[in-house]
## 1
Amino acid sequence: MFISPLHGIMNLMSQAKTQKGIRWIWVIFGLFAAFLVAAFGMKAIEGVVSFYMTVDELANSDGQYFGRRLKLAGYVLEEGFVQERNRYEFLVAHEGHSIRVVYEGIAPDTFVPGVDVIVEGRTEDGNLFVADHLMAKCASKYEPGEAPAYWQSE
């Protein structure tokens, strides 16, 4: 005969004769419910959260992040840059290390060889990163321009 956990809790409550006993049962039930909510929450977040690292940090991680979701930062090398419609293959490098990236989708206008990028996706086959998001930094938009002559002090 199958006895559900809820049935067992109800039996405990009926057997508890004092107010103190009932209070402890509710405390245990509350802790169990909180544990379940936390466990399901952690499992749900696991698929959404991605680590941020540079290419050299990934290269020195000994495969620890293989298959995990990552945001990977570096700059695009000119060598090996291939674009076929909305499919891009390129090398992203940082401090002497590089990784081949494959991205399918619409790239920003600022995405060209030599630009700093952040790609989001997963590592596969050793030195391959399959990206599903691509962000390119345009340095000229973030650097202050020349101040007009009338703002400059004499």
## 2
Amino acid sequence: MSGGYISFYNASTAFSDAELQNALPDFQNQVSYEFNWYWGINAYLDVNGWGTPIIITDYPGPNDPQDALGYHYIDGNFQPYGVIFAGLCQDYGYPVTGVLSHELLELLADQQTDTVNLYDFGDGTGIIVIQEVCDPCEMSLYYEAPNGNVVSDFALPGWWVPGYPYQVDFLGAIQGPLQLASGGYISYQYVTLSGWQQVFGDRAKQDLDRAAAELRQQIAAGGNPRVDTIRRLQIQAGQAGQAAQAAQAGQPARAGALRHPPTGAPAMAGRPGRGRMGPQPAAAGQPGGGETILARRQQPARRQTGQFTVVRRDEVPEVGQLTSVGQLWTPEEAQPQQQQQQPQQEERPAPATGRGGASRGRGGPRAQTVSAKS
């Protein structure tokens, strides 16, 4: 399965364009070789492109969650997007690239923010657990290749399977299914179960249409001017770019033919007035017209707070590789002391080309606890 195409837009004073460009190969490596190995989801990543937007700004706006370092959601047309608050990350001493990686992977795993798992207690009650792949281990990070930026640990599909006997997150920081690493969390709801119901024809369509309309109304009531602006400019740049290419080639314009706008096309969103560092006004007719969009705010004084765990790249366990009997390694099997007790153990084969982290070192994750730095 392909997760599609993700584009980063930087409008932050706390996280530079150079830092984003440096981190991009690490994000691509994590998505294509590590996340894809377990989840079967891949995506092409770039900066200022045409893909699903992940916006980097400094602080939450009036329509953003006020208690999060980043989030992902859908707009009024059910199109996904992500937002990261780099200034807030640095205020709390949390690596911006860790939050970017967190929201990127969650956006890929649950693009519509509606994937849940139902657990029946057998007494007419149960819980539904949302599929947020980085929340259970959000304070566990590791240094990614090739450039050594910090990225997020993530849960494997087995985390949602009660009784699953093997490793349930990439770093092996979680003890078992439906459990949390230090500093992790998960969102769930208690529900009352009445058994499966079958509905056919017009009744089913009416129920589904009503649910979709209610969701659309909830989303539209909040709105997100940043995302609306990016969507509009992507469309405008696309139309101008297709017309220019078609004129040069003498061919009709094709939808989706361009990845980057040609010379003379409107500036891509996330870079309005790139020479200016001040707030940018909303475009006429956009939600919240006249208010600040993608503002570059003055950074407040930073404060040092909290701790997170970072694992060195060469100490990431080779989870996902197969033993001679075809079973996944368990966290216990990856411990160095057990390897010393069994020196005759044969070498594990590397994953197939294009998958898995062939450069990951052996041994358990001898994690180092690092104080968060401003």
## 3
Amino acid sequence: MDEFTSLAENKQDSSQKNDDNLSLFKTIIRKDTYFVMSPKQLDRLKLVSEAVFKLANETLLEIINQNEVESWMESRYGIVKSLWKNGKTGINLIRIDFAWDQEKNFKVLELNSPHQVGWILSGLVEKEASADKIGIPLAPQPMFYANYVLKKLGPKVAIIILSPNAEYDLLASQIESLGGKAKIIYLSEVGFQDIIDFAPTGLFWRCLPGLIERSELIIKISNLRIPQIPSFEYTTGAIPKTYLLSKSDFTKNLNLLEQHKAVLKAGDSAGGKEVILGKNFKDSWEDKLKEIMNSNR
């Protein structure tokens, strides 16, 4: 999803235009960018959220109920299918991302489980995503990941990232709540010095394909001989993601995946553009939000 859809940081701000009824939405990529929406616009946006939520779950049922499922999908989502087939709710989805493979075949890119980062928490979504109402959740207990990181890396952890991410802010606070110390450091030459100054007992890397472009700096950091581990592909999600492959690096990166499992999502469309959400939802989120914002003010 693109920067316009990271709306979980929704908050009321009476200082904005001196109107308590305006909802202030902060974007995730451009931290200094805000959308101000009227109550009517917010209600319309929630309707979009609920519609996509319903479509995603309907699409999951269509996938589950197929007599034959492609092997790559069976291996990745088989546990969800088995739970549904046993008459239990395996997991509710907020979104299903679709994409196309190298032969232009329409594929499921990833199933996205409910969490409160990057989504409008409408009434329906909040109800369906409640932990005691989604049947058998596939996500681990809330503090499982923080405990794992502390056990692997010791009491002082440097979290290395490329761009702001609310999940790693959460991980850092959880580590500190368990008595450890954590610092988020952006991968850069300045960040390299920050690592030295912080003197961590271990490095935690957020694994993204963009790391390939910083290989020289990564080798430089590895020479510090500090224990390190990669991130899981998602800290709060329940189901693994397809590895993101950029167009320019496709040939170089394809060896990271078995070819029959590779579902392409072009690097320049990683913000949600050219990805269909739910069934036949072909507008990018940016266009959809602009449409809502510009109507019936």
